[in-house]
Each structure stands twice: as structure tokens, then as C-alpha cells.
Amino acid sequence: MQKITKEMLIDKATELLNNGTVSLVLGWKKGEYDYDVTPGVFESVEELKKDFVFGDFSAANLSKYLVKKTEKLEGKILVFLKPCDTYSFNQLLTEHRFDREKVYAVGVQCDGMVDIEKVKKIAGDGILSVDCNGEDIVVKTLYNDDMTIAKADVLAERCANCKSKKHVAYDELLGESGEVIDSNRFDEVEKLEKMTADERFAFWQNELSKCIRCNACRDACPACTCEKCVFNNPNSGVENKSPANSFEEKLFHIIRAYHVAGRCTDCGECSRVCPQNIPLHLLNRKFIKDINEFYGEYQAGAEVGSRAPLVDYTLNDLEPGEVFDRGDENA
Amino acid sequence: MQRIGVFVCWCGSNIAGTVDVKAVAEALKSEPGVVFSTEYQYMCSQAGQDLIKDAVKEHNLTGIVVCSCSPRMHEATFRKTAAAAGLNPYMVEIANIREQCSWVHKEMPLGTEKAIILGKAAVAKVNLNAPLTPGQSPVTKRALVIGGGIAGIQTALDIADAGFPVDIVEKKPTIGGKMAQLDKTFPTLDCAACILTPKMVDAAQNENIRIFSYSEVEAVKGFVGNFEVKIKKKARYVDETKCTGCGACIEKCPQKKVPNEFNLGMDNRRAIYIPFAQAVPKVATIDADYCNMLKNGKCGVCTKFCAAGAIDYKQKDEIIEEKYGAIVVATGFEPISMEKFDEFAYSQSKDVITSLEFERLTNAAGPTAGKLLRPSDGKHPHKIVFVQCVGSRCASCAEKGKEYCSKICCMYTAKHAMLTRDKYPDTDVTVFYIDVRTPGKNFDEFQRRAVEEYGVNYVKGMVGKVTPEGDKLIVRGSDLIANKQIKIDADLVVLAAAIEPDKTARPLATMLTASMDTNDFFTEAHPKLRPVESPTAGVFLSGTCQGPKDIPETVSQAGAAASKVIGLLQKDMLLGNPCVASSNQLMCNGCSSCERVCPYGAISYEDKEFPGPNRTVKVRRVATVNPAVCQGCGACTVACPSGAMDLNGFMNSQIMAEVDAICK
Amino acid sequence: MQMKEYKPLIVAFCCNWCSYAGADLAGNNRLNYPAEVKIIRVPCSCRVNPMFILRAFQRGADGVIICGCHPGDCHYTSGNYFTRRRMAALFSMLDFLGIEKERTRVEWVSAAEGAKFAATMNDFVEKVVSLGENKRLEDLRCKR
Predict the structure, then answer these.
(1) Which domains does chain C have, with CATH numbers?
(2) Distance between the two ends of chain B, CA-based, in angstroms?
């Protein structure tokens, strides 16, 4: 399998900018450190050369930004999408959130993204650079010798449990598109399900009490593109931060999880961006797992225009009381 | 800020017996927005209503809370009171402190405490109420009747008589339906054709009635008063306007081996055919499945013999679009398939027939010209066994039969037995029955005559098995009264098959968004008080599509449906329900979730311009609700991820306020 | 402080056409059920936004029950089918978060089932009382 380099992406973007196919490029931009990669918009070849990066930390799912970026766009925008990002891309199309005609999508082969927190746990603080050479990553730090770590050990949670290497949408592909993977992504949810109600409550109380209500999960989530978010208080004067009321403040995560239920593609951005490392994806996966079990397998974003399970029904669906009678429940 | 008046009703002692009404009025005085609070013995009385009206004027009230009986009882009353006092009627909320409080709780402190909380919830809601005005929509003064049996014909005739145009859509080449296949009708034994065919002719000649035969409803859009319907006129390959119905083509058609559905396959017809002599319209139809010309281009005989030049092999299905103010469903019934009832040997012997087949065998226009002859050998049967309730009242055999009583079988079986004994006194007739159910004018007398005057042998019990042996059918059954097993070597066995709704009814119900029960019978808006209306406004029910019925009942229901249609069509404008959904387009994402859960197709999308910062304009896809189509269920409000969709009268904020008031 | 008998707070959402009428019928027939049950009228069970349920729990409700027409009998043909899915997902999630499953229920009560309405409420309240006060959903984050 060929390795996809940042140069290949820059070349592709340069070509599309130069031949007039697109007027903007949505990609990844380097920050102060190698692992500080953020989404970035590039208007020229110069900008691309200066700041564009692609590598083990190009984790951000860019599809969400198409909603705002295509709004007033004349012409087209180029977007790079990893396989899991393409599901969000399709889901947004299903919800008519942007105009497909305004987007040139290039699918990028993905070999998994690295979680810098996991690297820090092994290599310690003071990381100067992180380089990847295939199976291993080499970490240079201020205080220690160079260190080589197996990439598999520091893969982001969602990559270790990758659900699909298949690109479900693109105009053009860089590298290869793989298959949908029969992953173990629900194992963690199952473990929780097997606990007692008290244990589960203790688990969530512990996790959710870390929340600082920074809204990063909401801001990164590709399913959260509402014109006006319920969690914003229009009277607060502090856009995006202030809660609308104490109810929404106190039950924020469950309200948010329900809002995206049936629409969440399990891209894992919520957990990735959480500064407190709350495993928020478990809430979404619980809904996905339940929906799969109750109403048949459903992957949001697998195809454009699919009918989400919560806006659908059959005459013989299980009763709400029956959800507790399933075998794996602690009685 | 609202100025709310609270009116606590004693309902005599009904409420005041368990609820301290004075304490309730006092407690609610201090709720936000409340400027006046009082109690009275009977709020719904004229004096009580006057008290409300006076208070509205005196205290400049903007909202009213009545703590009284169920809103299902008097909400409308108090809305009228409010309107009479110059308030918007939708500024009234009811706290149900009778049915859901004083009547179910016995202790005064508990009842009082709960009544106060229910009152607080109502006050919290009214604080957020907004005046609502029902929308108006015009009425298209034309009705559509789907199904051209006796139900549809009678409905159409009655509507047409009142002066409104009506279209009948019939899927078969002729109107007439099941009644046209019958021989005699109970309890008077007049011939079905003699009473039906004049009505068919009346319908054809009525200038207010158009008949679309060999046609089906393809799509229905719109709402009460404003339905838009697509009707598919299937190609019959004969120009209806030219065909004179002379029958020359039929005589010459070389394809003679087409099972004749009108005679239930007991004889054959040609590939070009007119179902029966009195068909309306009396126009030939080519059966494309059998016509050699249409199948492989080799024939063309009918063209040669048609003097009118009516044959048109190139005819295509035609789609007719028409607007209607009201739709009547009259899709009728079919006998159920006997396939799964092999214990009666229906598939093994030609001499085991259904009652409808028996009708054709005794009908002068039937395959035997009215002579009762066995289908297998054309011999006259001397021993006939009738089996009632085949597939009816069959709770234990739901997979093949029906739980319900088909209602008509007892009477037609008595009729068959009686007519057989009358015409062929040398015939032994035995009827097996579970119960004989013959309520109805002159019905029981009729059945008794079959037994007493005509000597029909009624056996209470069910037939266990029918076995063909030689040219006999061995019928084994039990006689529950004599408590013994019976064996009869019969020549003919007639099965009273259960009836079920026509197969086209279910997809039609979906198109009409009309509800059905689990047996696929259309549901009425109220089983007792609104029996000919479906829950979907503007859709009415006539005949057996709503449940098993005999002809007299069908005709009276047909007339009732017609009168409801006439009542609707004579209005120029319809007032809508203002408690409908509406989308806050500033918040709407245009994601289509709401549209997917709307059972009425009330939601559509438009690209709309919105002002952005710095005088820019942003075009966004947003949802709009057609208030005339929306019925106000609220499914969309929950499907909406952005909270843009809300329901007038039951807004998110209002329900949240109620929750808060209760949980405080 | 005086020891007070624990009284649960129960919110019942009832659809206008079937269950609210069923509750009225329970009243007509004078069938007792605990006064702690407070009914909120909604046009259809499908009008019940999970947010209302969460709100009730957050504000101190000990149990929330949703009543609608029997499947197949919805006044709006399909509303309760959506309710069924939404509530199945929501209740399972609440259970996942450690909220006792006995605190949530969906029951189909027709306009003719006054007796069922009263019996359902009696049973539901009894189950909730045996659990005691709901504190878990007051603040999911439980900041202390």
C-alpha cells in the first residue's frame, strides 16, 4: 500500500486551483507543534506551501466546515476526506446542509490517526516532533532520547476501532479505498451495559463531572450544524458559551446525544476534541448499537437520502418496555 | 405580560366535594400573570359564563384559566364564552380538576393540592398562549367516489341529486360490483339485476355523474375541500366514444378460452368482452393478456367486424387529473381465498363451490343459464350441504381466516337453501352452522321460513372434513345438539366464505392517509357517532370497505355518506384548525426530518433569502407547513433537530412551562 | 424536621384522543389512582419531545409515563409508531446512564380503557415509590 504524503495532497490541490476547478481548498493546517493540526482554508498555492499538512494528526473531520464555507461561495471548494469523514459528508448531504455542486471532494486513504495524549503517556512531556515512518512513529522530546513507538499503540480510539476504510463519497481518490470493517467498536458500550445501574451511574457521574461546558464537542460535531443551537442563549450576549438555562446546562450531554441520535455517523470528533477526555462517543455508540439491534443495521451517511431510523417505523417495532428485556441486561 | 383570570368551578359537589375550591382560587391568585381569581357553582351555566365575560371586561383580561371538568367536555364552551367577551378563543386553558382530580381522589387535602398544581400548570401555559386564528380554504364543488358497486352508485346518485358533480372511478370495465353477480336478494327475493341495473343506468344518464370505468386512483394530494387526484384510465383498446356495444367483435373473436371472471371462472369468455349484458358503460374491452393482436400482432379480427371503427390497438393508459372537495371510499369486498381451507376439498373437487359461485350457478345469466347443475358433470345435484362460517369468526385460525363475523352469510345461505328447495323439491338441503345470526327487518322470519316451510335441515355444528369419493362428496360433521357425528354423501358442497376488504383498499388508504384496522377495513372517525366519516377530513366511507354489510345497510350508509359530502360541498369556505405546526425559518436547517414523519404531506421546502451581516443575502432551504393540510399531531416538532418546528397551542415552551409548574 | 411520608412526583403525558379520554373515563367511573400523578395533555404521544421528559426529571419528577393510542389506532395514523421508537431509544439511553428503568414507561391506553389507565397509574406509582426519590437526573454532571 502506498503511503499518502502531504506533497501528494498539495500537488492535487495546486493542480485543481491552477486549472480553475476550485477556488478554495479545505484541508489541514499546521500549528505550533507537529500535533497541533487544525482545519484550514487555503486560497492560494503559496498558502498551501506554507501551512498545509497531512499526516498522523490530520484527524479533523472537515466535512462540517463545508456548510459555512459553501454558503456564499462562487465556484467550488476542494475538500479532503478520510473514509470516516465521507460518512459525515453524505449525512450532511442527506440533510441538505450544503450544495454538492459546490464541492470537489478528494478521498484520501487513511492509515489511522495518532492520539497525542497516548504518545505523551509513553514519551512524556516536552514533545518537539513526531515523525511517522509507516508502522512506527519517532518522537523527539526536550528531556529524553528519541523514542520509537509502534503506531498501533498510540492510535486514536476511533482508529483502533475503525469501522470503515471505505470512502462512500468522492470525486477523486488519492490512494486506495478499503472496505467496511467488522470492528469491535461496541465492546466498550457492552461492558457498560453489563454493569449494574448503580455502577453505570457512578461511571457517568465520574466522567461527566469533568465537563467544563466548553462546547468543543458541539463545535466539532458534523451533525451539529443547526442555524441556531439550543445550547446558545440568545440573551446572554456571549455567543456560543452561555447556556440557555440550567436544564440544558445540567443535562447537556444527554440532550446533545439525543439531538444527533440516528444522524451521528460515529466519526468520533466529540471525544477527540474533548479537553477533558470524556468518552463522549460512548453515548452516541449506545444509540447506534440500540438502533442496530432494535431496527436493523443502519449506518448514518452510508448513502445519501437514507431514512434515519428515528424518523421511520414499522408496524411491529419493539415496545419501549421491551428494550430492557433483552438478554444481556442485568435483571 | 398577560392579565389572567382564573375561574374555579364547583361543578355542584362534583368538584367541591373533594376539592376546596376557595383554597384553589386563593392559591392561584398569586401565580404570575393572574390578576383575578374566583370560584362559582357551575361555570358552564349561563350565569357562570356571564361571570367570566364580566370579569374579562372589568379586569381587562388577556387570558383565561378555567379549573373545571375535562376540556373534552367544555373547552369549546369556554372558548365561545371568551370569544363573546372579545377575547381570542385560544387564550383559554382548562385545568381538568374533575375527571382527573376530584373524581379519582377521595381526600380533600390531596385533591385540593393537586387541583392547585393543575391550575398552576394551566396558568403557566396561558402565560405563553398567543391568539390563534383559523385559516380558511375554498371548497372544490365536486366529489369523487372510488368504487362503482351498489355503495358507490348510491352515493354518487344521492350527491348528484343534490346538484353536485360526481365522478365514479371503477377498476373493472363496468360498474355494478358484487351485487351485479347476485341472483336474488334477501329477504324479499327480488332479482338483484332488476333492482340494480336501473340504478346503473340512472348513474350513466345523470348529467352530474361521470363514470371512469376500467380506471384506478393513482395518486391523491391535497386536503379536505381541495383534493388533487390522478386517475389512471387503463387502456381498453376500444374507443369508448365510438363503441356501440353491439357485440359483433365478441362473436368473431377467435380467442375463446379466457376464464370468465364475472362467472368466477366457471365458463369462458373471449379476449374482447363485455362482462355482462347490462354492463355500464356498455363498451367492449380487450384483455391484453389474451388478445393475439396485442400479444404478437397476429389477428385483427375485431377491427374488421367493428362497424363503428372503435378498436384501437394503440390505445395507451391515460392519466386524468381532477380536483375534488370530497372523496368517498366504496371499494367493497371480496370473498377470501379458499386455498387454505383444504379440509373442505375446495381445490380437490369442482363440486365444492363458494356461495358466490352458487349465485352464478343459479343466475339466469350465469354459466348454466340458471339451472342448478354440478360444475363437474353438469348433473342435477340431489343432496346439497351448505357450510357456514368458512373463515369467519375464526379466532383460532387467524392465519387463514378472519376473526370477525362476515354478517351476510347466514342470510344468503338461508336464501340459497330456500330457493333450492323451492325450485328443486327433490333436493335434500343441509346447512351446518355455528350460530344463526339474523337480526334485521324480516330477516329472522325469512330464515325460519327456510326451515319451517321449505324443510331445510339446519344442523348446529361444524363440518370437519369433506372427502371426494367417486362422484360423491363425503361430508363429515358434528351435530352438537343431538351430540353425534354425521356423515352425508353429498353431490354439491357450498362454502359460505368469509368476506374481506378488496385488495386495493390498503394502498388507497395510504394515498388518502385514512386509517384502517388490522383487517384492512377503513376506520370510521367515531364508531358510533361518525360512522361514515374517516378520521381524515374530507374522506368518507360507504359500504363494506368499512365493515361487513348487507345491501340494505350498504345503501343506507351510502346515503349517509352522500349527505355528509353534500354538507361539505355546499360550503364555500372551510375553517381550519389553528393548532397546526409552523416552522421558525430563522432556525430551520432544511434537513427534511420533519417532512419524513408528516403523515399528511403538509410540509414542503423552499429556498428563501435571508439577510446576512453587512447587507448580504443568504439563500437557505427552509420548511413551510401548509396549515390547511396539517392536522396538528406534532410528530414534526420532535423530529426537528434544530427546534425550529413548533406546534401552535402546544408549543415547546408551553409544555415545558407545564412541566416546570408541575415539578416545582 | 418532621418525618414526611415520601410522595413521588409523577408526570403523565397523555394523547388527547385516546389516553386523555381514557383518564377521563377513569374519572367518570371513579377509579382511584394516586394524586401524585399529574397529567399533561398533548395532541398525540408523538408530540412528546424527549426534552420534556428530561426536563421533568431534571426538575425533580420521580417518574415519567407517556400514554398514547394503541399502535394502529393513532388518530394521526402513525404518530405513536414514532413515539415507540423515540422512547425505546431514550429509555435505553437513560438506563445506560444508570437511571432506573422503572422510572420511565410507555403505555397504550385507549379511550375505552379507563380501568387500564387507573391500574397502570397505580402500578407505575408503586414501582416508582419502591425506588424512592430521583436524584440522578437532577444534574447529570453531579458537580459537587
Answers:
(1) 10-131 (3.40.50)
(2) 21
ipTM of the complex: 0.96
Bond into B375 cis (ω within 30): no
Which residues in chain A are contacts of C142 at CB distance < 8 A? 205, 208-209
| Residues C80, C42: Cα–Cα separation, whole Å | 12
- Strand-pairing partners, residue A201, are none
Structural domain including A81 reads 1-112+163-183
- pLDDT per position in chain A (331 positions), as tens? 678 889 999 999 999 999 999 999 999 998 888 888 999 999 999 999 999 999 999 999 999 999 999 988 889 999 999 999 999 999 999 999 999 999 999 999 998 999 999 999 998 888 888 888 778 889 988 887 888 999 999 999 999 999 999 999 999 999 988 999 988 999 999 999 999 989 999 999 899 989 888 889 999 999 999 888 877 766 545 555 556 567 777 888 998 999 999 999 999 999 999 999 999 999 999 999 999 999 999 999 999 999 999 999 998 999 998 887 664 444 3
**Beta carbons within 8 Å of B661's beta carbon, 6+ residues apart:** B117, B120, B121, B123, B124
Domain membership of residue A67 (yes or no) is yes
pLDDT the model gives residue A240: 52
Chains contacting A with at least 3 CB pairs below 8 Å? B, C
Residue B531's pLDDT is what? 92
pLDDT of residue B259: 96
Residue A327 in domain: no
Fold for domain B157-227+318-332+513-522+537-569? FAD/NAD(P)-binding domain (3.50.50)
Rg (CA), chain B: 32
Cβ-nearest to B513 among C38, C39, C77 = C77
Q: Are residues A247 and A281 in the same domain?
A: yes
pLDDT digits (tens, 9 = 90+) for B407-447: 999 999 999 999 999 999 999 999 999 999 999 999 999 99
Same domain, A168 and A61: yes
Same domain for A108 and A120, yes or no, is no
B587–A97 CB contact, under 8 Å: no
Distance from CA of C45 to the nearest CA of A (A): 13
Closest by Cβ to A320, choosing from C55, C91, C141: C91
Chain A residues whose beta carbon lies within 8 Å of the beta carbon of residue C78 = 313
Q: What is the mean pLDDT of chain B?
A: 94
Q: Which long-range contacts (CB under 8 A, 24 or more apart) does A321-324 make?
A: A321/C105, A321/C106, A322/C88, A323/A290, A323/A294, A323/C88, A323/C91, A323/C92, A323/C95, A324/C91, A324/C92, A324/C95, A324/C101
Domain B334-500 has CATH 1.10.540.10: no
Q: Are A132 and A179 in a shared domain?
A: no
Q: Is residue A34 part of a domain?
A: yes
**CATH top-level class for B4-126?**
alpha beta
Which of B289, B255, B283 lies closest to B269, judged by CA? B255
Residue A231 lies in a domain: yes
Domain with CATH 3.30.70.3270 in chain B: 581-648
CATH architecture of B581-648: 2-Layer Sandwich (3.30)
Chain centre distance of CA B250: 38
Alpha-carbon distances, residue B559 vs A105, B139, B161 (angstroms)? 63, 21, 11
- The number of distinct structural domains making up chain A is 3
The C-alpha atoms of residue B63 and residue B589 are separated, in whole angstroms, by 34
Residues A80 and A191 in one domain: no
- For residues A233 and A71, give the distance between their C-alpha atoms in angstroms, rounded to a whole number: 24
Mean pLDDT for chain C overall: 90
Instruction: Kindly state whether residues A83 and A218 are assigned to the same domain.
Output: no
| Contacts of B among chains (3+ CB pairs under 8 A) | A, C
pLDDT digits (tens, 9 = 90+) for B257-310: 999 999 999 999 999 999 999 999 999 999 999 999 999 999 999 999 999 999
